[in-house]
């Protein structure tokens, strides 16, 4: 899956001359946390709710209207935005976008194509995709099985699951432990998980846990 598949057509932006209060209001009204900033139609920065929090006056000292919650030291978006933000293209793999967010400890990435801003992708967007890919949203159950490095063991357990009338939605796995074992997390499209777990154990494998969806 690539970024193009999940970005929204709705694009909210600011310009470098917009005031901070406008940014605050746009985030509040649209329930978003990141807004790209343009200068002459070109992406030059991004402003986040974290940026806005840094210029808020503590509420206990504020006795006037909401508009004066911001310090007088800063007035425009340009003064507090992150300049030259990290971007991705519509053809970027979702996995790569997720790695960029995690590595740089940021919550959103502007999407740029041929020098033009075409959208935003956030950690919430990607999290939703990964949940769907793992089959968590649809009704499912999970059986966690401890296996060694032998690929035939994985194939055998997969076969046992099929023989018991279930389909595998997704498989996750842990790292190898010091005994050369790892846990495989089989997410299945069934609620008859106990019978499947029993069959796996009867064939000599260790079932660590079962989770009914």
């Amino acid at each position: 899956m690539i970024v193009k598949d999940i970005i929204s057509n709705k694009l909210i932006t600011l310009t470098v001359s917009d005031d901070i209060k406008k940014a605050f209001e746009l985030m509040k009204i649209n329930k978003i946390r990141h807004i790209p900033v343009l200068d002459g139609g070109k992406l030059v920065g991004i402003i986040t709710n974290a940026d806005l929090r840094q210029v808020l006056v503590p509420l206990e000292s504020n006795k006037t209207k909401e508009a004066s919650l911001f310090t007088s030291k800063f007035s425009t978006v340009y003064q507090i935005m992150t300049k030259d933000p990290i971007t991705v293209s519509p053809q970027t793999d979702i996995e790569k976008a997720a790695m960029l967010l995690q590595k740089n400890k940021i919550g959103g990435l502007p999407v740029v194509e041929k020098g033009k801003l075409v959208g935003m992708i956030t950690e919430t967007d990607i999290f939703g995709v990964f949940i769907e890919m793992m089959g968590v949203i649809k009704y499912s159950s999970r059986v966690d099985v401890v296996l060694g490095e032998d690929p035939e063991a994985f194939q055998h357990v997969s076969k046992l699951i099929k023989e018991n009338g279930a389909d595998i939605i997704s498989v996750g796995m842990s790292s190898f432990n010091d005994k050369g074992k790892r846990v495989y997390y089989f997410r299945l499209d069934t609620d008859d998980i106990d019978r499947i777990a029993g069959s796996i154990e009867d064939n000599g494998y260790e079932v660590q846990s079962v989770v009914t969806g």
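The mean pLDDT is 85. The radius of gyration is 24 Å.
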